[in-house]
Amino acid sequence: MDFPTSEIEPSALRDVLQRNFGHGDFHPRQKAAIEAVLAGRDTLVTMPTGAGKSLIFQLPALVLDGLTLVISPLIALMKDQVDGLRGRGIRATFVNSTLEARDRNKRLEEAAEGKVDLLFVTPERFRSAPFRERLARLRIVRLAVDEAHCISEWGHDFRPDYWKLGEYRALLGDPPTIALTATATPRVAADIVRALRLEDPFRVRTGIERPNLFLGSSRVFRAEEKIPHLAERIRAMDGAGIVYSTLIRDLEGLHDELLAVGIKSLVYHGKLSSRERREMQGRFMESEREVILATNAFGMGVDKADIRFVLHAQIPRTLEAWTQEVGRAGRDGAPSFCELVYFEEDLAIQQNFIGWANPSREYLFGVYETLERWGERVQAKDLDDLRDELLVKNRADNRVSICLKWLEVLGVTRGAFETHDLELACRLDPAELPEFVGSEEKRTGDLEGLAEMMRFANGDSTCRRFQLARHFGLDEPGEDSPPCGACDACADTQTWMSGKLQARPAKTLQVERNAAFQRGDWVRIDGRHLGHVVSVEGDGRSMRLIVESAGDFRRRKVDPRRSKVERVDN
Fold first, then answer.
1. Element (DSSP H or E) covering residue 46
2. This prediction's pTM
3. Are 280 and 267 in contact (CB under 8 A)?
4. For helices 440-458 and 347-357, angle between their N-to-C axes, nearest 10 degrees
5. Of 13, 45, 41, nearest to 29 (Cα)?
6. Is 401:417 a contact under the CB 8 Å cutoff?
7. How many structural domains compose the chain?
8. 19: buried, middle or exposed (CB in 10 Å: 19+, 13-18, 0-12)?
9. What CATH number does the domain containing 502 carry?
10. Has residue 183 been placed in a domain?
């Protein structure tokens, strides 16, 4: 297949930029990357969150013929991405498992007829035989791989389906490919090039070049020091903010403890219902001052420009993860504060996660052999049955899920526990497993990544931006470079905060008396029973509260229409 290229006058590009995207000019390095894409070159882009990576494949899709296929990791983001593009008059659509087969077929047919410029799919879509059969009819002339670090086993968010993207690219005839990520060390960048088989790619690699972000770390020596520190920070900064925590139970505890000192917050994590997650995200997106406590499940694709602070209550696993998460602050260019609250005992949490993220080959074969032994009975089983069979006691231990994903990616299994149609499709061939699966080298590499994060958290007299440039293999500032003025090595934290940020009005921290009940509220039922709202079910007229009694810790379902429920002020 001949892939289209084009030379377009710079003024014409700026016209498209202004007309369709509302920007007056390109960010640094953006224009060079777009010109490389227009020339038909493979392109590798490493730019910070919020720096406009998406424009590098979106704009060429408007000015060149043919279809751009975009690989995106999360189904939850696709509708928002496509809605945003269509709102700008751009012909975009998505195909994923949330759609009925009829709707998927209709959208693919429209793409085949040339009615679509950008088609978003997850890498898992390539495992669908009907989708692969339609590929020949789609005139795919460019491939864009978002969150490309997921390809590399050395990246901070490796996903097995991304690992096969080089094979999927070959199915498309090896079209020019744009790989994009906010975080890639030299090793990860080399992995992306190798896995996607990029040919002499044009490279754009930038670091955190946003002087409006203050970067820092504060160490606490006792667990009980965290809440006063976080509360002090939140009170000192007006505006919306994110507080990240690793464990859901610690996140819930943090919510209660902040509420006890008069600070209300939203909560977002994977155990909430889909309705609660949508509500929490919607309230945060629409707010000017909401504080949201979240696991790393929150943030990817959250396009909110005025986030004034990102705090980490527990240490992330890698410096890449931390960099990506703090990059969500201050996209509007206004001063924003990013800080890790470092407590050394939190390292044990991430060490456990590393062990669970690296099941041995023997463990993977144990999962396979259990499914084989169950035979047809597997369709009457569920994930908990498999975990119990393998003596998995800790609910955070996700080795079983990781092994199931590999069996699925390799075509060994079909279906899923959730739909009660899981079955073995073929035998597991050890030769098909990548060498790094279950390897000690992979586990050691993950531990080295955590050690690097620990060194960064401990801090020294070196500029934070210098440390990040060194970690990501970027150009480091010279010895005679002036202090950046926006990190705890180059400026006094309190002086920067008081000079750049306004304190939060005290009244905004308290729960509004007439606000709808929400998770975390303390309530009194029928004037007698004191309890804590742990979940909100339903909506509007059909709302139900799940309340945990302060007396015996039992949980009960409460209908505010049938019982007198009063919020208890803190």
1. strand 43-46
2. 0.82
3. yes
4. 160
5. 45
6. no
7. 4
8. exposed
9. 3.40.50.300
10. yes
Q: Is 523 helix (H, G, I), strand (E, B) or coil?
A: strand
Q: What angle separates helix 347-357 from helix 399-409, to the nearest 10 degrees?
A: 30
Contacts of 215 (CB under 8 A, 6+ apart): 208, 326, 338, 339, 464, 465, 468, 486, 487, 488
Give, as one character, the DSSP assignment of residue 374. H
Average pLDDT over residues 497-512: 78
Sequence length of the chain is 570
Examine the domain organization and report whether 433 and 450 are in the same domain: no
- Closest by CA to 154, choosing from 317, 323, 352, 362, is 317
Q: Tell me what pLDDT residue 508 has.
A: 58
Distance CA 152, CA 119 (A): 24
Would you state the pLDDT for residue 513?
A: 43
DSSP H/E element including 166: helix 165-171
- Which two tokens mark 74? 């999360």
Q: Which of 496, 550, 497, 486 lies closest to 524 in space, CA to CA? A: 550
Q: In whole angstroms, what is the distance from residue 295 CA to residue 280 CA?
A: 13
Q: Are residues 113 and 199 in the same domain?
A: yes
Q: How far apart are CA 391 and CA 410, in angstroms?
A: 25
Query: Residue 531: its pLDDT value, please?
Result: 81
Domain boundary among 385, 418, 437: 437
Contact 283, 321 (CB under 8 A): no
Confidence of residue 207 (pLDDT cuts 50, 70, 90): low
